Amino acid sequence: MGLILIRVSPRKPKKGETVKLSIVVRHPMEPGTRRDDEGKLIPAKYINELEVTQNGERVALVKPSRGVSANPLFAFKIKAEPGEITVTYKDTAGESGKKVYKLKVAE
Q1: Which element (helix H / strand E) includes 94?
Q2: Which CATH number characterizes residue 9's domain?
Q3: pLDDT tens, 23-70?
Q4: Model-wide pTM > 0.90
Q5: To bridge 88 with a disulfide, which of 39, 63, 93, 98 should be the other Cys (CB 3.0-4.6 Å)?
């Protein structure tokens, strides 16, 4: 399972302010076209779905393809609301990952 890193900028926004949500998923994103040192084809294994929810409501759904580089970065603009941002992903090998980020806002 890959590591999910989440960053919000500005770090502690005002409620309702538009913020940048940056997400990096540590994942090899193998396209299925590369060969190993012995010349054998490395099987495809890449993220094929990434979902972002804010306080239970979906704010983004991305369906990347095999052409995305390793450790992909996804960035979105959202309205700052206190609560939880949840990021989940699934890959073509059936693996998945999830991370919850608690967003705090300035009063």
Answers
A1: none
A2: 2.60.40.10
A3: 999 999 999 999 999 999 999 999 999 999 999 999 999 999 988 999
A4: yes
A5: 98
Q: Please, what's the b/e burial string for 36-74 (b: 16 or more CB within 10 A of its CB; e: otherwise)? A: eeeeeeeebbbbbebbbbbeeeebbebebeeebeeebeb
CB atoms under 10 Å from CB of 10, counted, come to: 11
Q: What's the structural domain count of the chain?
A: 1
Q: In terms of Cα–Cα distance, which of 77, 85, 80 is closest to 102? A: 85
Which residues 6+ apart lie within 8 Å of 69 measured at CB?
29
The token pair that represents 26 in the structure block: 């540590």
Going by C-alpha positions, the residue among 41, 44, 63 that lies closest to residue 52 is 63
Q: Is 58 helix (H, G, I), strand (E, B) or coil?
A: strand
